[in-house]
């Protein structure tokens, strides 16, 4: 057990994967000497060389497109997209190619490519540096889409993602990069938790709160605040958006009868809409109130001086919890 | 195992290669170039000097405001003043600029108040000026996107039938060396070329894309890329304000008279960090920075002014003082910039009323009001 920041845990996870499998490559802008703008790949090029940790030209379509080619040749590329807003130049390669080659080749072609995307706001950045594009990718069949929320999980999730035979879009909550947790780095890959299992991170009885990525911590804080007022929130970290672990969600909502979904992305046509619809289908007669969603507004991410208003915070989560009781 | 191709060869041709257009040496000596004659009055030269000094003062103040927590971020133009002032002063009212996020000097030439630039980096808005009013589009952060917009705009100028008339304008797109790797930039080159659009592609090759050196983007000098797309490319000493002015003027004139696009590569150096969050000591040599310091764009104009007796100490001191005043004023006004009203989140998302915006804005206002009730 060691104490690591989330960023460092990802680094250790990639390092372990590179040690275990010489086919694993890391590629992206500034990932080499600089160690990435968030230092998540710090030291990897020094230890594994320029052949395996590749500073690419400044071209996201190029990064993902060549990763596809490398994967066709038996490599397992882990691509870093520098910031969430810059994944869109690569969207064509991800959506039309990466996601569909397995199907197109009748299963002959496997593309074990991981696309790491630092996501979300809260770091006072300029435009395009604080977005939550998960719904675009969750909507695309053929991709696995996951989001880590803490250091311990980040370590296991990145290892599982790299080991996946399918392409994985891997969201990292950038404002949580510096949060620390105990991480067990000695575990064998086969003993790591399933990449796609949701986790109950705070058991409770009154309301189920669903979150992923950066919002999990906010929801845990909301649960702590609610507890002082005698309300017991069950917080579930979804971890995986596609596939979605509906069994864990259903078991909880069936018990509590109330559900609040929290994410940073705009609520309209966001991932919460999928959750609300599925929960309604599965738990209709056990619900005491409609599933409520808390998230960003249906606007572009605002300038940083307004992001505290935009991001769902503890108060907005608690407000939604109150509203589920008002029904 | 070594893979040869992994190691980029240094690009052919350095700054000293014959292709480099230079009109003022680093020592401040005026030289002539057969293709780029430049007639400047003493007043013109003093004006360019003043521009360079003031823009550096503004930039320096923005860096220190960032250090003091007043701005979230700043992309410094230190070392690139000549490329920006030279090209910026070549523009006329009919031209339209499509910048990236580092073109503070060009913005200054287009009359965009520096405070507006600071506001964006402070996080009060995404760009607080009207592009049409200044002939200066909003800053573009996604690398390379604006080169396509500029090309389309140029195609619009072409369609208006003004080329070759006194009302002709051209588009000019600014971007860095790293941007030349983007698909968008290459697509812009293709469109501009096949439609013979009136555009100047102005690449400030400051040698670095964050931590990645030029060799990670190109194996040939960037200006030579143009040839492959079918239009001329010129490399100019980007630390020489005269040469940047002359070359850009010519390229713009060619565009305005229907002769199509030009790629100008201003060969320069980013003296500071990529942005205030970057740490260049991780990837670059101090000795490189020292070598480029000797080519400082301001020093050489000052040397020229002195050498040719065009200024006295009083003039130089007055420009310095003006820079200090502008900086001090900027600091005060930056600190006083109010945070935007929360409702601003919903404003200008759409040009026409939009039901979802109204609904969310009303719900948000009601939510905010609950806090006021608690306080009351
Ligand atoms: C599409 C895209 N990818 C990545 C980034 C992150 N990023 C910001 S600036 C930069 C380097 C740009 O280098 P260059 O084009 O040479 O311009 P410079 O900043 O040196 O002026 C990168 C990678 C971005 N803004 N847009």
TrEMBL record, chain A:
InterPro entries: THDP-binding, Transketo_C/PFOR_II, Transketolase-like_Pyr-bd, Transketolase_C. It comes from the Bacteria. Gene3D superfamilies: 3.40.50.920, 3.40.50.970. One of its GO terms (molecular function) is branched-chain 2-oxo acid dehydrogenase activity. Transmembrane segments: none annotated. Its EC number is 1.2.4.4. Signal peptide: none annotated. Residues 4-179 form the Transketolase-like pyrimidine-binding domain. CDD domains: TPP_PYR_E1-PDHc-beta_like. Keywords: Oxidoreductase, Thiamine pyrophosphate. Its cofactor is thiamine diphosphate. This is 3-methyl-2-oxobutanoate dehydrogenase subunit beta. It comes from Actinomadura rubteroloni. The gene is bkdB_1.
TrEMBL record, chain B:
It holds the Pfam family E1_dh. Its cofactor is thiamine diphosphate. The keyword Transferase does not apply. It comes from the Bacteria. GO terms for molecular function: branched-chain 2-oxo acid dehydrogenase activity; magnesium ion binding. One of its GO terms (biological process) is branched-chain amino acid catabolic process. It is an enzyme of class 1 (oxidoreductase). Transmembrane segments: none annotated. The keyword Lipoprotein does not apply. Gene3D superfamilies: 3.40.50.970. SUPFAM superfamilies: Thiamin diphosphate-binding fold (THDP-binding). Its EC number is 1.2.4.4. Residues 52-326 form the Dehydrogenase E1 component domain. Keywords: Oxidoreductase, Thiamine pyrophosphate. PANTHER family: 2-OXOISOVALERATE DEHYDROGENASE SUBUNIT ALPHA, MITOCHONDRIAL. NCBIfam families: PDH_E1_alph_x. This is 3-methyl-2-oxobutanoate dehydrogenase subunit alpha. It comes from Actinomadura rubteroloni. The gene is bkdA_1.
């Amino acid at each position: 057990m060691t104490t690591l920041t989330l960023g460092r845990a990802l680094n250790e996870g990639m390092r372990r994967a590179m040690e275990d499998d010489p086919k694993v490559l890391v590629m992206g802008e500034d990932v080499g000497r600089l160690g990435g703008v968030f230092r998540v790949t710090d030291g990897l090029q020094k230890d594994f060389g320029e052949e395996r940790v590749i500073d690419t030209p400044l071209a996201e379509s190029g990064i993902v497109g060549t990763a596809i080619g490398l994967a066709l040749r038996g490599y397992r590329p882990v691509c870093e997209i520098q910031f969430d807003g810059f994944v869109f130049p690569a969207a064509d390669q991800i959506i039309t190619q990466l996601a569909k080659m397995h199907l197109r080749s009748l299963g002959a072609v496997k593309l074990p490519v991981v696309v790491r995307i630092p996501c979300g706001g809260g770091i006072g950045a300029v435009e395009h540096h604080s977005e939550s594009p998960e719904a675009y990718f969750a909507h695309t069949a053929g991709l696995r889409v996951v989001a880590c929320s803490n250091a311990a999980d980040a370590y296991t999730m990145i290892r599982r993602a790299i080991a996946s035979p399918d392409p994985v879009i891997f969201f990292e909550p950038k404002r949580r990069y510096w949060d620390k947790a105990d991480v067990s780095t000695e575990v064998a890959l086969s003993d790591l938790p399933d990449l796609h299992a949701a986790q109950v991170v705070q058991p409770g009885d009154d309301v189920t709160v669903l979150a992923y990525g950066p919002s999990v911590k906010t929801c845990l804080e909301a649960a702590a605040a609610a507890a002082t007022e005698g309300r017991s929130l069950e917080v579930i970290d979804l971890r995986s958006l596609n596939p979605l672990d509906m069994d864990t969600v259903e078991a909880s909502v069936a018990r509590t009868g109330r559900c609040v979904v929290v994410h940073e992305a705009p609520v309209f046509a966001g991932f919460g809409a999928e959750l609300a619809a599925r929960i309604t289908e599965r738990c209709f007669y056990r619900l005491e109130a409609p599933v409520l969603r808390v998230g960003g507004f249906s606007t572009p991410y605002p300038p940083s001086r307004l992001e505290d208003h935009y991001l769902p915070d503890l108060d907005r989560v608690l407000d939604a919890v109150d509203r589920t009781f008002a029904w | 195992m070594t893979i040869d191709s992994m190691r980029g060869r240094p690009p052919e041709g350095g700054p000293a290669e014959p292709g480099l257009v230079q009109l003022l040496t680093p020592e401040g000596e005026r030289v002539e170039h057969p293709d780029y004659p430049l007639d400047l009055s003493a007043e013109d030269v003093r004006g360019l000097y003043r521009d360079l000094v003031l823009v550096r003062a503004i930039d320096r103040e923005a860096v220190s405001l960032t250090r003091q927590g007043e701005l979230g971020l700043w992309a410094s133009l230190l070392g690139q003043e000549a490329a920006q002032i030279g090209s910026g002063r070549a523009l006329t009212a009919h031209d339209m600029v499509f910048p990236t996020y580092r073109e503070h000097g060009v913005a200054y030439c287009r009359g965009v108040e520096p405070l507006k630039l600071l506001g964006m980096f402070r996080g009060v808005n995404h760009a607080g000026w009207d592009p049409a009013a200044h002939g200066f589009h909003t800053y573009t952060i996604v690398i390379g996107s604006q080169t396509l917009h500029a090309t389309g705009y140029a195609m619009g100028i072409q369609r208006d039938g003004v080329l070759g008339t006194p009302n002709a304008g051209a588009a000019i797109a600014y971007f860095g060396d790293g941007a030349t790797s983007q698909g968008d930039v290459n697509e812009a080159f293709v469109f501009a070329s096949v439609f013979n659009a009136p555009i100047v592609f102005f690449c400030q090759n400051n040698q670095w894309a964050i931590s990645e050196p030029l060799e990670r983007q190109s194996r040939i000098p960037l200006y030579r890329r143009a040839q492959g797309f079918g239009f001329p490319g010129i490399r100019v000493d980007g630390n020489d304000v005269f040469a940047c002015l002359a070359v850009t003027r010519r390229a713009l004139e060619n565009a305005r008279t229907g002769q199509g696009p030009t790629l100008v590569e201003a060969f320069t150096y980013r003296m500071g960090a990529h942005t205030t969050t970057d740490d260049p000591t991780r990837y670059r040599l101090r000795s490189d920075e020292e070598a480029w310091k000797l080519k400082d764009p301001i020093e050489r104009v000052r040397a020229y002014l002195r050498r040719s007796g065009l200024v006295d100490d009083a003039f130089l001191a007055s420009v310095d003082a003006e820079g200090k005043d502008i900086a001090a004023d900027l600091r005060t006004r930056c600190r006083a910039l109010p945070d935007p009203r929360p409702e601003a989140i919903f404003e200008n998302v759409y040009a026409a009323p939009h039901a979802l915006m109204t609904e969310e804005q009303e719900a948000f206002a009601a939510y905010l009001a609950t806090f006021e009730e608690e306080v009351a």
